[in-house]
Amino acid sequence: MTSMEQNPVPDEPGSSAEPAGRRKSRVFATAAIIVAVTVGLFMTYLGTRADESTAIPPAPTAGQAPPAVGAAAAAQMVPATLSLDPLGVQAPIVDASVIDGVLTPPGDVSEVGIWLDGAPLDSSTGTTLIAGHVNLAGQGNGALFDLGTVEPGQEIRTSDAAGNSTRWRVTSVVSRAKADGIEESVLAGPEGPRKLAVVTCGGELEFTDGIGNYQDNVYLYADLI
């Protein structure tokens, strides 16, 4: 992995809404994972967001049958998922985008993103890194909004696009100030012991010129069962 600069982690777009009993720790949004640039996910609460559209394939013309979908292709259409069973949350896992050197979770807060340079879901070694928004203006709370309330010893699950499920036991859930930089263990990549890391923004939400910035990142670590 390339070395990471210890810059303050930019913040997740959020709202002042908080999880019961405390301001939700919301991780660094896994920023700057692929290049040696920023160390946190930069997500700013702007109060608006770009409209997202979905491409719809054209309907078959008269007399033309729709293309057949084979078993292998159908299996690939099964979405990979992160299941936070203690929270009753199941989120589709999609590829996280890398924008200007920053690993950015999907724009839909109900989804989470996987770092493609980390261990894939079906790997037998290495650390799989998954990131998601804590919340976004116009969408509300994200799939990882209550990540900081998961407790060590509890079990969570991931499943890959083939439907293969993997069980994980949570070993720790910690908050880290973005000013302290990224927790480098989440960048271990495909080598080493099998681990899962899930991150989002959290901590205090501070506003500057109407833009809200979370001050911390929340890290959940889990070992393969």
Care to describe what's here?
- By secondary structure, this protein is an all-beta fold.
- It has a domain of 146 residues: Sortase, Chain: A (Beta Barrel).
- Helix content is 3%, strand content 34%.
- The chain contains 1 helix and 12 strands, in the order H-E-E-E-E-E-E-E-E-E-E-E-E.
- The strands form 3 sheets. Strands 1-2-5-6-11-12-10-9 form an 8-stranded mixed β-barrel. Strands 3-4 form a two-stranded antiparallel sheet.
- A hairpin with a 3-residue loop joins strand 7 and strand 8.
- The longest helix is centred in the first third of the chain and has 6 residues.
- The radius of gyration is 18 Å and the shape is globular.
- The chain starts with 70 loop residues before the first helix and ends with a strand.
